[in-house]
Amino acid sequence: MRNPKKLERAAAVQRSLTPVAKLNAMLPPGSHPLLARPVPAGFPSPADDYVEGCISLDDYLVRHKEATFFLKVAGDSMRGLAIFDGDLLVVDRALQAAHESVVIAVLDHEFTVKQLLHTPSGYVLHAANPAYPDIVIKPEQELTIWGVVRWAIHRLSV
Prior knowledge:
Layout: H1 4-26, E1 31-35, E2 51-56, H2 57-61, E3 68-72, E4 88-92, E5 102-107, E6 110-119, E7 122-126, E8 135-136, E9 143-153
Antiparallel strand pairs: 1-2, 3-4, 4-9, 5-6, 5-9, 6-7, 7-8
């Protein structure tokens, strides 16, 4: 026999989600509902489904539309910075790279994603995985910073 209290709570949750579902159907293409309260990553709090508004992932992820590109990662040299094989990188070519920026670099005509370090002896492309050595840029090498990585997007479950 089913517990009537559990059924009542489930129905209440379903009713409370209905406004979000209706809002989702009314949003412009590419927009998604944005809940008013951030989700705690520490102790749980009561569920809250109040919608603050809508969010466009383009607006959230892309600062310079004409200069933003998406690239897929191949390899694990940046896993120490939570950039994994298969991740989608959001790269902004309009940004100026700074010390410790994660960048798409072109070194001797080959692309790589690394952390850019400015040292007294010059530039270093740092891999965030101890299995890979740092690349100290030599004067005879050609280095171009193609863009700055703003976001790394990866799947958490299948």
